[in-house]
Amino acid sequence: MKLNSVVIDNTFAEAFKMRYVRLLVTAIDAHWLQAAISASTGCATSIIGCTVEAGLESCTNETPDGRPGAFLLFFAREREILEKELIKRIGQTLLTCPTVSVFNGSSGGELANIGARLRYFGDGHETEGEAYGRNVWEIPVSEGKFIVETKISINEGVAGGVFLIMAKTQSAGLSAAKAAVEAIAPLPGTITPFPGGVCRAASRIGSKYPFLKASTNTKFVPSLGPTLPAEVTCVYEIVINGVDEPSVKAAMREGILSAVREPLITMISAPNFEGRLGSIKLHLHDIAG
Questions:
Q1: Host domain of residue 269
Q2: N or C: which terminal CB in the chain sees fewer CB atoms within 10 Å?
Q3: Any idea where the Formylmethanofuran: tetrahydromethanopterin formyltransferase Ftr C-terminal domain is (predicted)?
Q4: If we measure between CA atoms, which residue out of 227, 204, 226, 228 comes closest to residue 216?
Q5: What pTM did the predictor assign?
Q6: Could you report the per-residue pLDDT of 208-253, keeping only the tens digit for each?
């Protein structure tokens, strides 16, 4: 199969179930909102080495307090891990960020007492009440007060939607990867958690070193991968997490369609690991066709 003369490999990505939280974060203006986004979603690219995978879903002006806001998605394998990481990230990066408030950004799912556990920072001076139609805790801070919704929804999502962009030059690969991420960005319910939405270090399960659970995927390293087309000099990976399988598929499709419009792209492929990574098969021909 080809799109715009680019080969779409007859293969699939292995996605898997993850728990996720959608936070709605608000701030007084765009500057402090961006500070909150950057701090709270930092070092959250892959659960290979990070506790959670996180990113910006979208920005919004439709918020409980009428201020600029952003929906942030956080993913983890287990509920307990996700709750612990949220306590740390909200407590260390959002409670501390000037003017920021935090609300539940989802409905349904299981409710976790995230705000109720963060309240202890108030050292007995915190108060529970209603604000903007939400049940919240108000925690006194030196700026005034930090508002956090008492309960946060935890739902089941899908992680590991992925495709690989194989390019003849680095600049072509970067252009295609950037175009793919920009096409995915407006889509609801998805994030691309790597820096700038792009990973330059595709990995495989396991390593020759017993202390590593993942290592470089030599199959997709041009200097090491004998099965790559001869003209390929670099490979970029786009990883997508979403609130459900259809959202991930839609993001993969838009990303692929945008990537193949760029010149000097040879092939779109995907890594898979004989079912060891995930049970959800996302076939590239079905998605891009």
A1: 2-15+157-288
A2: C
A3: 144-287
A4: 204
A5: 0.96
A6: 999 999 999 999 999 997 789 999 999 999 999 999 999 999 999 9
